[in-house]
Every structure is written in C-alpha cells, then in structure tokens.
Design a protein that fits this description.
single chain; 71 residues; mainly alpha; 4 helices; 0% strand; globular
C-alpha cells in the first residue's frame, strides 16, 4: 500500500503502539489492567506500546475493543 494515497504501512504500524498507549492513558488504564482485559502480560503490552513488537493484524480488533475504539 505504500505510495497509494500517501499510506505507508511501515509508518502506520510503527505508530500504532504509541496510539494504543495514548488511548490507554486517556482511559485511565494501567498496562496491567489492559493486559488483564487482553488476557496477556504487562510486558507484552509494554512491548507493543514501545513498538518493540509488532501487533499481529489478527489481534487488532481485540485491542481496539479493549480500548473502546474502532479499527
């Protein structure tokens, strides 16, 4: 999709962790609280938020729902 309407998948995926972190903080959730909602670990949440680990597309809807957001 790179080059199509200015969409760069690398840039979009790299910033998704930061977007999730901002939304989590706006909702007043800790990383541990979000991890429990997602049935994962606090460390995984931290790694996703820091863009150290890419969030699989298959998990995107689950994260969006946990953060009361839309995909």
């Amino acid at each position: 999709l790179q080059g199509v309407s200015g969409f760069d998948t690398r840039t979009e995926m790299a910033s998704i962790g930061k977007r999730f972190k901002a939304r989590r903080i706006a909702l007043g959730y800790t990383q541990l609280q979000l991890a429990k909602k997602l049935r994962t670990t606090k460390q995984r949440v931290a790694h996703i938020e820091a863009d150290r680990v890419r969030l699989p597309i298959s998990e995107l809807a689950k994260w969006a729902a946990a953060l009361k957001s839309e995909v």
